[in-house]
Amino acid sequence: MKELFDLPLDRENTCSVKFDARKAVFGREDVIPVWVADMDFAAPEAVTRALAERAAHPVYGYTLFPESLYQSIIDWFRERHGWEIQRDWILMAPGVVPSLHAACMAYAAPGEGVIVQPPVYPPFFSSVRLSGREVIENPLIHDHETGQYRMDLEHLEVCAARPDARLLMLCSPHNPVGRIWSEQELTAVLAIARRHELTVISDEIHCDLTFTDKPRHRMLAALAGPDDALVTAVAPSKSFNMPGLGLSALVIPERDRRNAMKAVFDSMHLQQCNPFSVAGFEAGYRYGAPWLDDLMAYLQQNRDFVLQTVNARLPGIQTQAPEGTYLMWLDCRSLGMNDVALKRFFVEDVGVGMNPGISFGEQGSGFMRLNIGCPKAVLIDVLQRIEAALSGNRPATDQP
Ligand SMILES: Cc1ncc(COP(=O)(O)O)c(C=O)c1O
Description:
Blueprint: H1 2-6, H2 17-20, H3 22-26, E1 32-33, H4 45-56, H5 67-81, E2 90-93, H6 96-107, E3 113-116, H7 123-130, E4 134-137, E5 141-142, E6 149-150, H8 153-161, E7 165-171, H9 183-195, E8 199-203, H10 220-223, E9 230-234, E10 248-251, H11 255-267, H12 275-287, H13 289-313, E11 327-331, H14 339-350, E12 352-353, E13 355-356, E14 367-371, H15 376-391
Parallel strand pairs: 1-12, 3-4, 3-7, 7-8, 8-9
Antiparallel strand pairs: 2-10, 5-6, 9-10, 11-14, 13-14
Helix pairs in contact: 4-12, 5-12, 6-7, 6-11, 8-9, 13-15
The structure holds pyridoxal-5'-phosphate.
């Protein structure tokens, strides 16, 4: 299997955002793309086969969500996460980001507040703002000694107590800092939400991407009681590297809350689904587990290689091992560059396209997000280039 993940795949000219949008995003087509959160690996064979079989039938008509699809979700979460889902709790959705936006519309009125925990995946901000709701920031605490992040639960309580606060968007595991929230943290979140009558939408799209040497991921819903106002967003798209297929699931035990979400989707006529998404989604959950286990073993090696190399050989840059996700959060603050200079340094002097930390909120200033979901050879090249640029032609600092 290792050979499979080592295999370089040419993704150029496949309408890949990661590869084919480089000129538009970085101003150069030749940066090594280690940004957008998809991986450069072939999806599990079972997924490719299911898609090919569906494509072989030449009618691509309007498609429904088959019962077998719902069952694949139920089985996956029971077996993999010890979480029992009932069939009628599931609402299929066109993606997790659209679900975040829909949650703002369903559970907060225009002008009301939605709590997010920055630094965090940018659509957590944009879904709130674009839906006309107010962002309430509950920044994570960054421990400068260990480099680890944790929740500021005291401040979360203050945010939740605001009369306009309606919804909390949890990112679990957390993108970009890679935390798997502890049971204690998750239980505290549920208690705060309960005390202040907040709905929680827990984005657990990265729940399968966890490392065997780190704490186990706990689904928030598996810790919740029947009265908790909880919406869980999941998808196999990150787990089996098929996010372009665009499909996800919401699990909402409480009927009124489920109907409120459904009403938002219905108001936009979003009940339709794509025949390929259905085929890929179900095949991933049904047959993808062995591939996923191999993937995580490979990513663990990538993670350890990056961790060791960055901390030993790249002066001014530090990183920690993420507990989940295939994203690493590089602390570049000691390089002494502002965010514009930092981005320019990596694009122009290094030739690498990463996500600037500042796009995850002001708390991400001075950081860069590196996607390690690629053959190790790519990461060797990336780190060698950074090392060379740091030792050779260190750029002038601080000039935008
Ligand atoms: C935390 C998180 N949520 C959602 C998404 C995207 O979800 P979707 O493609 O289903 O809209 C991503 C993609 O990077 C993500 O990291």
